[in-house]
Design goal:
Layout (H helix, E strand, L loop, with lengths): L1 H10 L14 H22 L15 H22 L2 H31 L14 H8 L1 H13 L7 H26 L5 H5 L2 H30 L19
Length: 247
């Protein structure tokens, strides 16, 4: 019957995919755990208010919260695909992952590097200190969970050099535009580092961030190939980003 054939086709995984996804087992459990972690982070912003809560742009002035929102959207579609076994939702989830996973890796690298140099670069003097649990759920767990999802519950990415650099550049400089818009309304930047930099150095910062995000994309592709293997058939048709199951 067609429905049976469709179900079997969906449940076949890509030959370089370590585990079946969508599924109703381990994949769904990880996505539920991820969404619970992300919900904890958003709840932390509400129950621990600071001046950012009442400013233009709310906490979405922070790249951390933008990345967290994108990670939440990615895992929301991932869980829906687990529950419904919908190949279309699985494609959407994997397309979002192409942006959300490298972005979260970038956020983790930037945050922990700057924090190690000087915490005052990423946290204003007037802002309350983050609890360790919140610091980890904001700046470490999203990247870890998205990388795990990529390695074990997703088909391989096939984004090439130019689109990867272009996507990273669009995200980086769109964020700069957004930050400057918020500054016009609020009179302050969300990160003290921005206050300390002149415009040319901000260009260097955002351009460098776009480069690091592009490199993280290729690092994740390399890691995927290391964990799951590489295609060996020279005539094999390449999978498209977000390609669902292939036998």
């Amino acid at each position: 019957m067609p429905s049976t054939n469709n179900a079997h086709s969906l449940l076949r995984r890509h030959h370089l995919q370590r585990m079946h996804s969508p599924s109703r087992g381990l994949s769904a459990a990880m996505h539920i755990a991820g969404l619970a972690s992300f919900a904890y982070s958003f709840n932390y912003l509400v129950v621990n208010p600071n001046p950012i809560n009442d400013s233009y742009g709310w906490h979405l002035q922070y790249l951390t919260i933008i990345g967290l929102s994108l990670a939440t959207t990615t895992f929301f579609f991932a869980l829906l695909s687990d529950v419904t076994l919908s190949p279309r939702l699985f494609v959407v989830k994997n397309a979002l992952s192409v942006a959300s996973a490298p972005l979260e890796v970038l956020i983790s690298i930037l945050y922990w590097t700057l924090r190690a140099i000087d915490p005052a670069l990423v946290l204003p003097e007037w802002a309350p200190r983050l609890a360790l649990s919140a610091d980890v759920t904001f700046h470490a767990l999203p990247a870890m969970l998205l990388v795990l999802d990529l390695l074990f519950f997703s088909p391989p990415w096939t984004i090439s050099a130019l689109p990867a650099v272009g996507l990273s550049g669009v995200i980086a400089f769109s964020y700069w535009f957004w930050v400057e818009l918020c500054y016009q309304h609020n009179g302050f930047y969300p990160y003290p580092l921005f206050e300390a930099l002149t415009t040319p150095w901000r260009i260097v910062l955002f351009g460098g961030s776009a480069l690091v995000m592009s490199l993280s994309t290729y690092s994740l592709q390399w890691l995927y190939a290391t964990v799951n293997g590489r295609p060996i058939a020279s005539g094999e048709t390449r999978a498209r980003p977000g390609d669902a199951k292939r036998g």
